[in-house]
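[audit] Reproducing an earlier prediction to check determinism. Same input, same settings, fresh worker. If the tokens differ from the archived copy the diff job will pick it up downstream; this log only records the rerun itself.
[audit] input (123 residues):
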Amino acid sequence: MSSPRFLAQIAALNLLQDNGPRVLARHRNLCHAAALALVGWYLMTAPSRAGWFDPDAPLLQWTQAGSFDTASKCEQIRTIANQKFLDKFDVYNRDTLEKVDPLTAVNRISRCIASDDPRLKGK
């Protein structure tokens, strides 16, 4: 008499033979959905030295300021943090020392980045 596990394996093989492409496509879609569900979002801030931010620095040098389940939550917190920053500080151009558009400047020094972004892993 065959074991239940053996019968299940035979049934799975028969299912794959009869419906192989559909089963494999469904499996691939489920794996893709699971991978997307595992992606989180990091609020990253540009590195700074002596009060000057470097938004052109490689992402590996940026600081993780928070982590979130969704991009929209990350952007929501980023907007709040940017406003708090602007309430406390004036923003100047590093080269000319002239005031610059604060919203543009502060948006360059923080970003929401997917946790699986290859730029976070380096070379």
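[audit] rerun output stored. Observation attached for the diff report: The mean pLDDT is 76.
[audit] end
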